[in-house]
């Protein structure tokens, strides 16, 4: 079965040449892009979809979310807006609520959140454990997550649960808990921050998870300067996420990991992606991550929603893209790349998703707008018109 999506007013491909085609069309076959070019030259297909001169771009790749949770923390958010500082300890409030939810409820909540993300144009999504914080609960959350999300990250090292000894808990994360979660996860992560895991504990977690064969990422430099970036580089992690408080040496270290990378051709050895989470930065009143500075230094960045009940309760990638353009100094092209190809790089799936290229999974979104620039030009407007994931419509 083949599908022709034609009469695309502006097609942002994010292919290696970063082509933007006008009056374009794509042909999708067996869930993959089979042909891309001028609408006038398009071959025939079994079915056709008229894009009505709208803009099309790759589906969003959301490379950082925490969607396995129950409960509500809006009171904590309100207190923050009244001047309280964000503290990692809030994670235990969600831990209690999530432990109390049965499998049916957690699956129902997760499916609802993934559907919301898809309705906003997200076609590839990572999610983390980290609200279980015991062997059985982390295993349960990872199992449920793996049945719905594209990728699962093991984040047993999210918080030392109240009452536990930090070093003993770290040991558990690196042994029994890791064994329990490993079958369901592709990556592991550690919240390396004051109030969560220190450098030594983080190093222990990263070593054990690497030995277990998981890819690595790090929550780093979110609430203050710290060793997160340094550790991510030392362990050749796929990404370091948050990156709000960077010293010049951190930027230099990250840039060094991209020296074997040809950004223009998107070829070579990928380095450590710096994942910026602007919705979280605004919701926690932290300085926005220095995306402009990182790009100027030659670092590939990703934009992700960080959807979670504590610091960023939105899965809107359009909101993140709009904020990155309006407040972080990125161009529209850079922000769209970071939210598509950049996310794919952070997840190590850049050969499969993140751009409109022949052979890649046919993940495509159409906007109710003639150009991608409208994402920032008309912030907050419901611009998603249609979403195709592997060639199938997934918007409501
Ligand atoms: O990425 N920073 C750590 N983890 C989440 C927040 C989790 C929470 O507060 O519930 C984040 O912001």
TrEMBL record:
State the compartments where it is located.
Cytoplasm
**Keyword Hydrolase in annotation:** yes
Residues bound to Fe(3+) are: 64, 66, 219, 306
- The answer, when asked if Coiled coil is one of the entry's keywords, is no
Its EC number is 3.5.2.7
Q: How does the cofactor attach, per the note?
A: Binds 1 zinc or iron ion per subunit.
- Classify the main location: cytoplasm
Where do the Amidohydrolase-related domain residues begin and end?
57-377
- Residues that bind Zn(2+), according to the entry? 64, 66, 219, 306
The record, for NCBIfam families, names: hutI
- Family label: Belongs to the metallo-dependent hydrolases superfamily. HutI family.
Q: What is this protein called?
A: Imidazolonepropionase
């Amino acid at each position: 079965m083949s599908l022709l999506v034609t009469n695309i007013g502006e097609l942002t491909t994010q292919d290696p040449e970063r082509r933007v085609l006008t009056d374009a069309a794509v042909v999708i076959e067996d869930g993959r892009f089979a042909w891309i070019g001028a609408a006038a030259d398009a071959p025939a297909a079994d079915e056709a979809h008229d894009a009505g001169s709208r803009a099309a771009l790759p589906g969003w790749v959301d490379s950082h979310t925490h969607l396995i949770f129950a409960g509500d923390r809006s009171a904590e958010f309100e207190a923050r807006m009244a001047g309280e500082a964000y503290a990692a300890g809030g994670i235990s409030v969600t831990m209690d609520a999530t432990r109390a939810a049965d499998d049916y409820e957690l699956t129902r909540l997760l499916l609802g959140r993934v559907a919301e993300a898809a309705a906003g144009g997200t076609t590839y999504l990572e999610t983390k454990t980290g609200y279980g914080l015991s062997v059985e609960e982390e295993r349960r959350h990872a199992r449920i997550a793996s049945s719905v999300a594209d990728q699962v990250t093991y984040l047993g090292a999210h918080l030392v649960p109240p009452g536990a000894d930090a070093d003993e808990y770290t040991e558990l994360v690196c042994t029994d808990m890791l064994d329990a979660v490993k079958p369901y996860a592709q990556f592991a992560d550690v919240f390396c921050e004051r109030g969560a895991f220190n450098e030594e504990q983080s190093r222990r977690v990263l070593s054990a998870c690497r030995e277990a064969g998981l890819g690595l990422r790090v929550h780093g430099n979110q609430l203050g300067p710290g060793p997160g970036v340094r550790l991510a580089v030392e362990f050749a992690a796929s990404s370091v996420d948050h990156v709000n408080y960077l010293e010049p040496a951190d930027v230099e270290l990250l840039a060094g990991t991209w020296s074997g990378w040809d950004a223009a051709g998107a070829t070579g050895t990928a380095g450590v992606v710096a994942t910026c989470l602007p919705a979280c930065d605004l919701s926690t009143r932290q300085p926005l991550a220095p995306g402009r500075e990182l790009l100027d230094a030659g670092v590939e960045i990703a934009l992700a929603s960080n959807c979670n009940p504590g610091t960023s309760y939105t899965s809107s990638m359009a909101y993140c893209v709009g904020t990155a353009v309006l407040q972080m100094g990125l161009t529209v092209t850079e922000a769209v790349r970071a939210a598509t190809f950049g996310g794919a790089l952070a997840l190590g799936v850049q050969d499969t998703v993140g751009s409109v290229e022949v052979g890649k999974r046919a993940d495509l979104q159409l906007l109710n707008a003639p150009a991608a620039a409208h994402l920032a030009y008309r912030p907050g407007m419901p611009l998603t018109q249609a979403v195709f994931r592997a060639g199938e419509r997934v918007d409501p």
